[in-house]
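thought: fold this chain, then report.
action: predict
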Amino acid sequence: MENSLVLLLLLAPFVGFLFNVFFGKKVGKSISGAIGTIAVAVSFVMSIYFFMQLNTTGKPIEVKLFDWIQIGKLKVDFGILLDQLSLLWLLFVTGIGSLIHLYSISYMHEDDNMHKFFAYLNLFIFFMITLVVGSNLLVMFIGWEGVGLCSYLLIGFWYKNQDYNDAAKKAFIMNRIGDLGFLIGIFILAYAFNTLDFVKMSNMMFSVYNNYTGPFPNTTHWSLLSIAALCLFIGATGKSAQLPLYTWLPDAMAGPTPVSALIHAATMVTAGIFMITRMNFLFDLTPDVQNIIAIVGAITALVAASIGLLQNDIKKVLAYSTVSQLGLMFLALGLGAYNVAVFHVITHAFFKACLFLGSGSVIHALHGEQDMRKMGGLRKAMPITFATMLISTLAIAGIFPFAGFWSKDEILMVAFEHNKALWIVGSIASIMTAFYMFRLMYLTFFRDFRGTEEQKHHLHESPSLITLPLIILAALATVGGLINLPKPIGNGWLNHFLEPVLLSKHKEESIFEGNAMMLMAIALTGAIIGIVWAYSKYIKQGFVPKQDSEITGFSKTIYNKYYVDEVYTSLIVKPINALSNFFRTTLEPALGNVVYGFGTVVNGLGNQGKKLQSGSIGLYLFAFVIGVLAIVSYLFLAQ
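observation:
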């Protein structure tokens, strides 16, 4: 019975995918949308069931579906592991995924390929569930590659626009770079431990961590583990958009807004954090790699936040905020505070999904307009969208008592405890976040409307299927911090819940211990400074960002994302294109001529050989006799 329910959890979205592929167009848009939503909702209900079971028994659920690979001593099963970490991830992947599906029924209703859209969404959720529940790295890798494929399909969903196709290809290719690193890391660990099973590897690591003699089959020195950990981190930089593999994520805005919400909040970009947290037993024993992770995370947070300051596309502002928030999560991972990173992943999923879906509501009302310079004054026409986005903006800015305040501040506390320089970088990025997020709110919802008269005439609040998910997500963004409130106002439930899957235990502090209260006050003050700064510029002064051609100086450099894409194009894309062009125009024809030359020679010899075939049986018999005599003579003389 239990195995059947586990399979239902895993396969329900895949069944929804198959239904929409084969029957979606026939049954109509409403039914295809409903089936797709119900499929994910079933997985959400199953996730709640297993979460409650684990909470009661404390025992993870392991299911071996079948033997998969055996090469020498290496044995890999196709297994499922439902423990504390995987079930937490499943709850927000399937829960938020269900809300996004519900939202999409209304948002995509005018699209002729709505059934295909829901098929891709369902497949995306299926692969994300596979990634999360896999009991070993190879099963995780199936889901890892699957979400990469689905991101390509969904980002380029409106394929008639070539720019959208280019964005999809960019996401796919940049993720392949990271995935190669991940795959090499898997090979190294398979060699080192003769297993890829998380529980078995963790047990080996525990023995080393606790100074016992552990069964290390092939690892002769620690540098091998450091290389493996670094390779896994390279994989994470691709999926979770960290320097230098982050540029695909802002371009991923080309897809429909529900896709942006799904990628940024619940699925693909959280995969890297999940993988590193899952492999915490490896990273805790490779502090050199942890330092790299923390530094890369902090720099990514700062760079992405600075770019977000001047973006005018509402979805690109949110995209760079995602990259920045992911950087903070990696900062926590690099400092060994995995539970803190997971806490911020969860709260970020709530408010970022709400912000993206809210931006979709705005775009929907403005018939596709995404430039904030052509918005303004929408709060009266769209009160629910405004209120829910305001709550989520307060959460991401770190304002008390919203969810982001608790999770972001805990990351900054950990950074202050371990590395003051990284704390300063994280704090500056957080102040920038408060500024550009309220810049978004002020430009979109306040002062006078700056769009066309036709847009103004048709302004209206979005339908209930769009606003209901917004309300639920805004409520979660408000109270989400309750899952890990520090002492004495809470018991740090999340920290205790994750203890069985973490090798090292992050020190739990009361908000009245040490510098905690001071750091919270500093962070809150910084957020307020960012908000007041934005208010002064965009409300009091009524400043509207300049047109692209009017932006000059260093602002132009920031607006153009530090020209990183241009640098990549010059150093990587153009040389590769030139090399491929050389192969196509020069080398390939030359090789073709060589091949055709051999063919011409053989054909000529064949034509000459045909002349010997006269059709005279007497001549053939004469040649046969001469040949036999020659062979017999040779054999006689050889004796």
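thought: worth noting. The first helix runs from residue 2 to 27.
final: tokens above.
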